[in-house]
Design a protein that fits this description.
This protein is α/β, with parallel strands linked by helices. The protein has 14 helices and 16 strands.
């Protein structure tokens, strides 16, 4: 992976200060942790800092600023503390940055001091679940809580919802895209309770499975989670939830948004269904995938507000938000454009030409952020096959 970092000072002790957003962060010198091919490997850092996650952190700032003028946050898995420091500097929140690793705790303390946040942000060194479970009894209202683990967030979600206020925000990252996209079917079943099926929309499938599992586990503690923004980027998923501590709301969301995807691997047909039933007799190889999230993957009005931020500091984040707006109204999982034309043994026109044709026929259609070869549309598979079969170059 190639990364770019704005190094503002070399401290001369195998450490540098980098600038991210409006914050300055001390990190181990990245020159010391490159592979033989010269590519930086964040996993080799003695304290984890991933510059590729800048987009993730930029969106965190925008989501929190849109939701709160002030408030209290917990960053449960802090690493160098970059996200928490930025929340204090750029969003004006007070809070806690935690990490169980003593070396990470040292970096967190120094980065709080470097940004003059000693009166706003407090370093903790606890196992994340222990901190969150114990914090439930402090009486302090948590407005925003962030879970950004290495791998799956499932080990943390039960304790993460406990300290949330009556109405709060929760940000969750998952980097276990292998299981979620069915590259590791056994892990998908163990971790998320879903049997894998080979589909052409695996990246969207992974996000819907992740959201459902998080919502389901929170509902067990009478906390309703509703995704206001979610996306897939490179090797991770990210979901921002609005939370409400109310049993009735938790039941309603789960009742409305728990479902399945019926998929025919013969002709790539797919339908969102509420119950696990087979629905097409003329399909030899049909599958029911789930349970998973069948409602919208975000709040269009909220994402639109994020997309309208004009500060160039967040240009990449607002660009992604604009892409999400275009596809948020289409619940049907995306189609792989190349597979559909391959099915018909036809040469592919430019993808934008195909999307334009769908729109001319009265359908919603757009590219998707999930896959450069993907098309989101509300056209049925029968209509799409009809269009492609009659396509002339």
């Amino acid at each position: 992976m190639l990364f770019s970092m704005h190094v503002v000072e070399n401290l001369g002790n195998n450490e540098v200060i980098v600038e991210e957003g409006l914050a300055k962060i001390i990190i181990p010198n990245p020159e010391k942790y490159k592979r033989p091919d010269g590519v930086l490997e964040p996993a080799w850092f003695p304290v984890f800092y991933n510059p590729l996650m800048k987009l993730n952190r930029d969106l965190t700032i925008l989501v929190v600023r849109e939701s709160f003028k002030s408030g209290f946050f917990i960053e449960a898995l802090g690493g160098t503390g970059v996200r928490g420091v930025r929340l204090a500097v750029e969003a004006g929140l007070d809070g806690i940055i935690n990490d169980v690793d003593p070396l990470a705790y040292r970096y967190i303390r120094r980065n709080i001091r470097l940004n003059k946040l000693e009166d706003k942000v407090y370093p903790y060194m606890h196992e994340a679940n222990s901190l969150l479970n114990n914090f439930t009894f402090t009486g302090i209202v948590v407005d925003y809580l962030d879970i950004d683990p290495y791998g799956s967030p499932i080990p943390y979600i039960d304790s993460a919802v406990k300290p949330l206020g009556k109405k709060s925000l929760l940000g969750v990252t998952a980097t276990d895209t292998g299981p979620l996209t069915c590259s590791h079917p056994a892990k998908m079943l163990r971790r998320y309770g879903v049997r894998c099926v080979d589909t052409d929309f695996s990246k969207e499938l992974g996000l819907r499975v992740l959201i459902y599992n998080l919502v389901f586990r929170a509902a067990g503690q009478d906390v309703a989670l509703k995704p206001i923004m979610s996306y897939n980027y490179k090797y991770y998923y990210r979901v921002f939830f609005a939370s409400e501590r109310r049993a009735r709301s938790a039941f309603r969301i789960l009742d409305e948004c728990r479902g399945y995807i019926w998929f025919c691997s013969d002709n790539y047909d797919r339908k969102i269904i509420r119950e696990p039933v087979l629905i097409e007799r003329n399909c030899k190889h049909q599958h029911v995938i789930g349970p998973l999230w069948i409602c919208r993957l975000g709040d269009k009005e909220f994402i639109d507000k994020i997309s309208r931020v004009t500060d160039p500091l967040y240009s990449e984040a607002t660009s992604l938000a604009r892409k999400l707006i275009d596809e948020i109204d289409i619940d049907q999982p995306y189609f792989r454009y190349d597979k559909l034309f391959g099915y018909h043994k036809k040469n592919m026109p430019p993808i934008d030409v195909f999307i334009k044709k769908l729109k001319e026929l009265g359908y919603k259609a757009t590219r998707t952020h999930f896959d450069p070869r993907g098309v989101k549309t509300n056209a049925s598979i029968l209509e799409i096959h009809k269009i492609i079969s009659s396509w002339t170059s």
